[in-house]
Amino acid sequence: MMVLLSPSKTMELKSHPTITPSQPIFEEVTKEVRSEIQGIKKDDLQQWMKLSPSLTEAVYAMYHSENGQHGMALWSYTGTAFSGLDAKTLSPGNLLYAQDYLGILSALYGWVRPLDSLHQYRLEMALRSPKTKIAYHDFWRKRITEALNSHVKAIDTKYLLNLMSAEYGKSVDWKLFPIDVVSCSFLQKSPKGLKNMAVHSKRARGLMARYVIEYRIHEINRLKKFSAEDYKFSDAESSENRLVFVR
């Protein structure tokens, strides 16, 4: 089962002590996108990305740094989902497995694999290129879809588990996908019924991704047995292609 995650806005570059990093699939395209952003003046960057003054300084430095620092993708993203995934406690064997079965979609890199070597960056899929005015999810869609289609055929998997946000989901042309696509929702019980709370849902996506990696999940029935942090599968709330977990 192939799993797709959104990236996090926050990063802290770190590398694995023994695993050699891989190079991003769309390295040359990334250079073009990065070069375009490097040409944006600092004030325009702030307005374009809607950043605070202090964050503008940090992001501007990310795109103009000459120190060449890199980090391994799965160890460097630090958002809530990646806290749930907790890559630093995965065995080397699980990290190598994840390289084929976990993908992270990115507005700068397109499709990121767990062991890919990345610069620190910040860029949202919904943003439009200042040069072409094309949204990055439109810019990447054909490239990502074709690459993922080839990959899922190569690894001979029957399902793709979409754990991305709606924004990043737009970067894939799902109607052209050759295998079944399944998504998950993670709901919280409350006096007013079931609620989708973003911070809990993000963490649960990471927990689910880890579950698939650790237990080599390939079938939907095994996916339904996910029970991390008290989540339970709800047959009543689920549909054929959307699995709902409640706690």
Report a brief summary of the structure.
This protein is of the alpha/beta class and 247 residues long. It has helices at 27-38, 42-49, 53-64, 73-76, 80-85, 92-101, 136-154, 166-169, 198-215, 220-223, and strands at 2-5, 71-72, 102-106, 110-112, 117-118, 159-162, 180-190, 193-195, 232-233, 242-246.
Q: What features would you describe in this structure?
A:
The protein is α/β, with parallel strands linked by helices. The chain has one domain (2-246). The chain has 10 helices and 10 strands. The strands form 2 sheets. Strands 1, 3, 4, 6, 7, 8, 9 and 10 form an 8-stranded mixed β-sheet that branches. A two-stranded antiparallel ribbon has the order 2-5. Helix 8 links the parallel strand 6 and strand 7 (180-190). Helix 2 (42-49) crosses helix 3 (53-64). The longest helix is centred in the middle third of the chain and has 19 residues, at 136-154. The chain starts with a strand and ends with a strand.
